[in-house]
Write a structure and sequence with these properties.
This protein has 48 residues and is an all-alpha fold. The chain is built from two helices and no strands. The relative contact order is 0.08. It has one domain (3-46).
Amino acid sequence: MTGAAWAVITGMTALGWALHHLALHHLTRDPLDDEHRHLVATHRQEQP
């Protein structure tokens, strides 16, 4: 297998996983609420 083919397969796998994760994320919870929680958690970690 060539390096190019490996890169394409890896890229497609990563893209597929990302799309699958985003689809589940949007189906199971509110994206804005989750983003807000993530920002608050990150802020708390940076400034204890």
